Amino acid sequence: MAQSMRGLNPPKTLKPNLQLHNHRLPPTHFFTHPKPISRNFPSISLSVMAVRNQHQPPLSLDTLVNSSRREELSDAIRASLPNCLSETNLQLTVPGLKSKTRGKVRDIYDSGDYLVLVTTDRQSAFDRILASIPFKGQVLNETSLWWFDKTRHITPNAVVLTPDENVTIAKKCSVFPVEFVVRGFVTGSTETSLWTVYNKGVRYYCGNALSEGLVKNQKLPQNILTPTTKAADHDVPVTPDEIIKSGLMSRDDYEEASRKALSLFEYGQRVAQEHGLILVDTKYEFGKGRDGSILLIDEIHTPDSSRYWIAHSYEERFQNGLEPENVDKEFLRLWFKDHCDPYKDKVLPDAPEELVCELAWRYIFLYETITKSEFKMPSTEEPIHDRISRKVAEALSLLK
């Protein structure tokens, strides 16, 4: 998220099927507040393959590769390659938007009382934009909506409403300049990933003591928090003491946000396991609302912010020294690492079309697997930028 907006930022969540009908918006408090659910979530055992309905086969890589649903969507994905939402300029088309900040994936607009977050199709890794992925923005926005709705018993969030598939309107809050990265496994390929630093000999990372003898893709004895902060355009690992001593967060705020992050991750792991997946690692962002409450913002458990593996095959592949079957963007990261230096090269090669289409399918596959609902293709009758402009303008006029 761009530094200039660090003081004012939100997330995205609302009732997944909210629509604007006849210019009437439901009240912003339409979310009912369920009774608190115990946060003592059961630990996830990988000795038992994914919990599943006895009438359903276990989720497997074959399901991902040879799915009839994939064939059903392949033409739409390929046809959408020239029409990805790579950039928006709502400040030119929507009255009342005061400024635009361009993040890696989201375009953020200040409307005075609220922030408007547009999730684009931009694909980010290595602190770079690698490509644009068809339907990615919609998948991220709607996946977050689903998870935000499911996690209100753990923490409140800042979402006001979502007038469009790619858009969330949120309360303004003071954003903590810390990303709460939670990890359950020793894995990864980026410079700040746990396996990369562990393989280089690091045994104390972000305040966590790591034992000797760990191997790649091994499950950690317990989930750990490895916070990062921003320096220029890079994620910088940091310890809790450094966060507090440098004044990035107070001790009380850090401890509360840390508890929320670990509880969110444990819950996410449980839900993912029930759906045949392993939530390997993820990141959360938090902000402080005007009433002093700590709110979950940005995105949650999306294919962009999280790593997912297929649970059914994990143990056998790990025991045989094979990479887990993954359903995330790691394959695209690895392609760039094999074909360039994504950290140093000024110009990156174009991502192959087949990999872009594959990633689009994986994003949709994860959405449908987690939410157990069918991804709805957006209408092509109206250009996407026109559609977003119209719906955002309508929503903001009704929020006045």
TrEMBL record:
EC number: 6.3.2.6
GO molecular function, one term: phosphoribosylaminoimidazolesuccinocarboxamide synthase activity
Keywords in alphabetical order: ATP-binding, Ligase, Nucleotide-binding, Purine biosynthesis
Matching InterPro entries: SAICAR_synt/ADE2_N (IPR028923), SAICAR_synthetase_CS (IPR018236)
CDD domains cross-referenced by the UniProt entry: SAICAR_synt_Sc (cd01414)
PROSITE patterns attached to this UniProt entry: SAICAR_SYNTHETASE_1, SAICAR_SYNTHETASE_2
Leading EC class: ligase
Superkingdom of origin organism: Eukaryota
Domain SAICAR synthetase/ADE2 N-terminal: residue ranges: 101-347
Pathways per UniProt: Purine metabolism; IMP biosynthesis via de novo pathway; 5-amino-1-(5-phospho-D-ribosyl)imidazole-4-carboxamide from 5-amino-1-(5-phospho-D-ribosyl)imidazole-4-carboxylate: step 1/2
Catalytic activity of the protein: 5-amino-1-(5-phospho-D-ribosyl)imidazole-4-carboxylate + L-aspartate + ATP = (2S)-2-[5-amino-1-(5-phospho-beta-D-ribosyl)imidazole-4-carboxamido]succinate + ADP + phosphate + 2 H(+)
Biological process according to GO: 'de novo' IMP biosynthetic process
One Pfam family per UniProt: SAICAR_synt
Cross-referenced Gene3D superfamilies: ATP-grasp fold, B domain, Phosphorylase Kinase, domain 1
GO cellular component: chloroplast stroma
Family designation: Belongs to the SAICAR synthetase family.
Protein name per Swiss-Prot or TrEMBL: Phosphoribosylaminoimidazole-succinocarboxamide synthase, chloroplastic
UniProt source species: Cannabis sativa
